[in-house]
Write a structure and sequence with these properties.
Blueprint: E1 19-21, E2 47-54, E3 57-64, H1 71-89, H2 97-102, E4 108-111, H3 114-129, H4 139-144, H5 162-169, E5 178-180, E6 185-188, H6 200-214, E7 220-224, E8 227-231, E9 240-244, E10 254-258, E11 261-267, E12 272-275, E13 278-281, E14 284-285, E15 290-291, E16 296-303, H7 306-319, H8 321-330, E17 334-341, E18 344-349, H9 351-356
Antiparallel strand pairs: 1-9, 2-3, 3-7, 4-6, 5-6, 7-8, 8-11, 9-10, 11-16, 12-13, 14-15, 16-17, 17-18
Helix pairs in contact: 1-6, 3-7, 6-7, 7-8
Length: 358
């Protein structure tokens, strides 16, 4: 079963996945940002690959399996982890936990599954820390502006009028949801629509990694829809290497060595429209209800957890090249920010990113 998380539905989630494993000198990139690579002849037999589809995208795992343990158990663990994320967090499944919460009556409390609550609290933490630059309830605004398959209009069909924008903004605001941390409960205030498109893929990568580690695997590279997490190392005590395309027209991506590190990218390379001489990005600023107006074209974040990297990439994309860089430095975030300027592409990296880059 293929269930979509609507990659364009939430701030920064479309255009993600600009990171890809590097099997040779330079990785190739599909429109989705990730193109699975053929196994090199030089790769040892113990370096094995599993691939599949889930959450409306593809996944792959490069696994160093020197003991040649059966791959069936690894595949089953991977697919079970991804199915759990769909079952709990997919807005496309009418009976998922998130769908039931979204249509619940005003004033009702809901005990949430542990995984769901983990993602929700992470989203709330960064929403609060960023002053609302990221908001897991922003989905209705994204749809209003014509992005995503559930959009109210085709991209570029027209700018929402003030009344429509006001009505939709009234439905957005993470602060309206009350959390009971001790009871793992959340209060549905009424008509609030939670959407994890900007964080669920990252969490799914982490969950797959946890399930593989539970089976005793220590060295592998997990990728779901372009978000990656490297655990351990490749055969020969070498780090896993991934390629990061910082600009849409960049012919030579930046290759990064990764050990026990995750990477996520947010950008507007393909999801935007132009009208009246202005470029409208799919990235919506929840604070204004409008697409961001700055020239930031992509943000790549490195973090020990892919869920955190996923959320932070969106936060920085909304904040923009200046405020985003300042926020990342203040919070010790390893980030690469790429901006479209009149003089051409410009890149800036935080101190933490520079320390990890070759």
């Amino acid at each position: 079963m293929r269930v979509s998380f609507a990659p364009a539905l939430l701030q920064g989630s479309a255009g993600r996945g600009l990171a890809a494993p590097v099997p040779t000198g330079v990785a190739s990139f599909a429109v989705s940002g990730y193109a699975p690579q053929a196994v090199r002849r030089a790769d040892p037999a113990a370096l094995q690959t599993l691939t599949g589809e889930a959450m409306g995208t593809t996944w792959s795992v490069r696994l160093h399996n020197p003991g040649f343990r059966p791959l069936d158990e690894a595949r089953q663990a991977i697919e079970a982890a991804l199915a759990l994320v769909v079952r709990q967090m997919s807005n496309w499944e009418a009976d998922s936990d998130i769908s039931r919460f979204n249509r619940a009556e005003a004033g009702s409390w809901h005990v949430l599954p542990a995984e769901f609550f983990t993602v929700l609290t992470c989203a709330f933490d960064w929403a609060q820390a960023s002053g609302g630059a990221w908001d897991p309830t922003v989905g209705p605004l994204v749809e209003l502006w014509g992005f995503g398959p559930r959009a109210e209009k085709a991209q570029g069909a027209g700018i929402p009028d003030a009344d429509a924008l006001r009505r939709v903004r009234e439905r957005v605001g993470y602060q309206r949801i009350v959390l009971d941390l001790a009871g793992r409960r959340a209060l549905q205030p009424g008509a609030v629509h939670v959407d994890f498109s900007g964080i669920a893929k990252g969490y799914s990568v982490d969950l797959v990694a946890e399930r593989l580690q539970a089976l005793g695997h220590t060295d592998f590279l997990v990728e779901v829809g372009g978000e990656l997490r490297a655990c351990g190392q490749r055969p020969g005590n070498q780090p896993w290497r991934v390629a990061v395309a910082s600009m849409a027209d960049q012919s030579t991506p930046l290759a990064l060595p990764l050990r026990d590190m995750a990477i996520a990218t947010s950008g507007d390379h393909w999801h935007a429209f132009e009208q009246g001489g202005r470029r409208y990005s799919h990235t919506i600023d929840p604070r204004s209800g409008e697409p961001v107006a700055h020239g930031l074209t992509s943000v790549t974040v490195l973090h020990a957890e892919c869920m955190q990297a996923d959320a932070l990439a969106t936060v920085l994309t909304v904040l923009g090249p200046r405020a985003g860089l300042d926020f990342a430095e203040q919070h010790g975030v390893a980030a690469l920010l790429c901006e479209r300027t009149a003089q051409g592409p410009a890149m800036a990296m935080t101190t933490a990113f520079a320390a990890l880059a070759p």
